[in-house]
Each structure stands twice: as C-alpha cells, then as structure tokens.
UniProtKB/TrEMBL annotation:
Its cofactor is FAD. SUPFAM superfamilies: FAD/NAD(P)-binding domain. HAMAP family: MQO (MF_00212). Keywords: FAD, Flavoprotein, Oxidoreductase, Tricarboxylic acid cycle. It comes from Microbacterium murale. The gene is mqo. The lineage of its organism: Bacteria, Bacillati, Actinomycetota, Actinomycetes, Micrococcales. Belongs to the MQO family. This is Probable malate:quinone oxidoreductase.
Amino acid sequence: MTESVDVVLIGGGIMSATLGTLLHELQPDWKIVAFERLSDVAQESSNPWNNAGTGHAALCELNYMPKNDGGPLDPAKAVSINEQFQQSRQFWSSLVAKGVLDEPSTFINATPHMTFVRGEKDVAYLKARYEVLKKQPLFEGIEYSEDSRVINQWAPLLMQKRRKGEPFAATRVPAGTDVDFGALTHQLFDHLAGSGVELRTNHEVRKLKKQKDGSWQVSYRNALGHTPGELNAKFVFVGAGGWALKLLQRSGIPEIKGYGVFPIGGQFLKTTNPAIVSQHKAKVYSQASVGAPPMSVPHLDTRVVDGEASLLFGPFATFSPKFLKNGSMLDIVSQVRTHNLWPMLRVAFANPDLITYLVGELLKNHRKKVDGLRVFMPTAKDEDWSLIDAGQRAQVMKKDAEKGGVLQFGTEVVSAADGSIAGLLGASPGASTAVPIMLSLLQKCFPGQYAGWEPALRELIPTYGEKLNENEAAADASMTATAAALGISR
C-alpha cells in the first residue's frame, strides 16, 4: 500500500525549511516528509559560501531603487523589501524564544550595510537616494557622507591610498546584518526532524503525477542504492533551486508553460588574513557593471560563518549549463519545450549586454579579478585573496505579451490552480524574504485554512498584516524588539 502524507517538501534549502516550520507550527498534526538529493541540507544556494548572506533589506542594494532618467526616485520597492525582511526577523525572533533556533549569534550578526559610489553622476544619484530614504521610518538612521575622513571611520579599507580629487560618496546603516542561511537552515531542519517531520537525505524525487483524488504521486529513488519508492501527498512544494523548473515541468501543470531558466554561476575572492579582516566590518555594495544582472552587483562583505570572520568580494560571473552546483550538464537543454523556446530566444536577442558581460567575466584571470577589488580597496594584494566557487543561480525567463519573453530578476512562486502544488523559481532577494514568500504561498495554496491560521501567525509575527513603514511608532517598536531578541543593532 502506498504511503500517504499531508505535505512533501522537495529540496533541503531555506525555503523548504521555512515552509516546513510554518506548517508544523500551524498544523502540528500534519505528516510532513522532506526530500533532499544530497547527503545533507543547505548544500546549494543556502550554503553560506554560495550566497551573499546579506540579510537583504534594501539598505545598501541600489537595484531595489534604480535611477529614473531624471525623474523622482521611487522608494516603493526598497520599502517593500525592507518590510519583508522585518517579517523574517520577527519570525526568527519568535523561534529563538520558543527554543526552535539556537543562540542568535550562530546565524545572525550585526554588520553595517553601506553603499559606496564614485563619479559625479553616481554621487548625485546616491545623495538623491539618501534624501528619499531618510524620510522612510524603516530606513531611520541612514547616514550619508562625501567626506573621506568620515568614510574612513566607517570602512578604512575603502579610503587607504584613494586617488585625490576623485568624487565619491557613501551611505551607511548601522543596523544591517550578516546572516548565515546555512546555519539557519540546519537549525530549522534539526528541529523539524526532532518533532516528527521526516527528512530523507540522499533521496531524489524523479516524477510527480496528479491522482484522480487530487493528491500527487511522488516517485523517488535512494541516491545511494538507487532503490525506487513512491508516496502520495496532498500538497507538494518544490523548493529545489533551478531543479524546481524540471520537476514542475514533469508535473504537467499548465502554469509552468512558458517558463525557462538561465543559469549563472559565481565566484568570490576571499581572505581570512586577520590584519585585513580586522579593518573592515561592513557589507559595502556599489553599482553593477553595464549589462550585469542585479545579483552581480559588486560588494565587499564581512562574513561570519561558524564563528569565524572573513571578507568576500564579488561576485564574478561564471557559466555552467547546470541548474545546481551538483546538477547535470544537460540541464540547460533538457528544459526546452515548444512552449518556452520562443520566450527564451527572445530573452537572448534582447539581452546582448548580458552575453557581453558574461564573456568578459569568463576572460578575467585572478589578477584582473583583484583589479576589480582594488576599485573598492586600493591596497588589495593579489596574494592575500583566493577564489571560491559560489552557488548557481537560475534566473527566470518567462512569456511576455509585448516582448515575447523577459528575463525576470527576483523570486517567483508558480502554483497550480487548485493549490495542490507550488514551486519557487529565481534568486535574490530569496533567502532574506523566505518568510513573506512562504506566507504568500500558504495564503494562495491553503485558502480554506488560512483564516484559521492567522491568530497563530500573529503570535509568530506580531505585526503580521501591518505596513510598518506607514506607522513610525510601530516600525520603531518592532525593530527595537527584534534587535533585542536577536542580539543585533537597532
């Protein structure tokens, strides 16, 4: 007799961990099974060395508030991202209080967020951005300076041997964070596994087939012994990074038609030299190169992983046809269907700058990459930095009525009309906004239960349903409370 469960989670990353935790808190009687094809969770995009670990709150990322050809800057996107991150912070705070998560410093640490730009046009833009954001309650405390002495206090490595007469400017938000999403994912899955949720590592889901009763037959195999198996699930979540597209295509749901993904890999320069690391405690973002995707914005970051501080600079784009670091070389070809071929071709024709950018990145040697770092840190020496491979990002390509196809930056939930299956495609801001993304999924896929869950959700997320940026007192109270609970700066 085929085993029946309430929920199947495919993929052992932060998204599945977050959704599993929410469902377990809301419906502790539901039977949940999670599948991960590798030997452990958080080995792909959630691994701390495979992502920026920024704690995206739009404090320093310029692509959430782009230039507007001389028109007024619109803070709506930046405010929305910050609102979402506040929900994640509140959720994590509640889980720390409940004992689900460990000491906060094991996964989140206070790290100021900065933006640094050069050149008159970018300086003027950054100042205009600051003037708009300083009026937003969620961005209270943002600072701006064109004074080298002030910026030197914030981040000395940016100013040492800086060329005289060069226009530059920086903003700084002391309340930024560095998040180890690998540690967070492990802790969430550890709690789930200890609370009755079954985690099956080394198990790869191969097929999804809709049954007459509305459930899903989930066919899988043990990746070690290649032993096949199957179970039936009332609901399936596909949180498997780029692999999600392949599984959603195999499910046959019409909602996935027209979607494709373009894989982009990355590398970072890394140093653990104490003499360098001790001089920089911040995440410093700048403008992206012409043609570069938003996730390739250069940044010099403090990272804290397993209690050890290091600095990363990048990312530098790489290319692999794989959708995951541990994917297949045939991934980029095997996704092609008659319904998504034209949108993908249109994306290729419409983005020559992206192709040029990728080719240029692939031609860079180690010295050229350190030259990119020297734009931020003029004193950088080649021998102090080594390259590490980051994760694969699968950028969404989708149908568009006017253009035929567009390259979609950000994350997107694709779900069946009946809500029985859903999957997540895309990349940044991703992990930082996992909680609101999963709340939106729950509302869409479980309309009959959602209203009954709202009281419990308000206990987990005290300002659930509110817009903090529209209420200065509420924003201040919420950020103060979560900062205290997580042991980070206000």
